[in-house]
Amino acid sequence: MTETTRRIIKAIRAVPPGKVCSYRDAARAAGLVNGARQTVRILHSMTKSEGLPWHRIIRSDGSIALESGNGRELQIKLLRLEGIAVSKDGRVDMKTYSVTGN
What we know:
Number of strands: 2
Shape: globular
CATH class: Mainly Alpha
Distance between the termini: 30 Å
């Protein structure tokens, strides 16, 4: 595991229940300016083995990236269980729920 991967994992784990973070902001917290795709790859390949709170990581516009039938419904359910309001179209108010307040 690379040091960059470790830093991204640390940033993902730092998102507390009831909050969300964008792929971009997780990468930035790990010191990468343009690392959103790397965050996605880590979530895709290491969520189970590392026990990552994958459901708290969403797009920077507050939308859920997963498509219906591919985890979208589960992600929305998990976010709502943590008290995060998710709109009918799968959006979260980033100003209210983002760890960065963006």
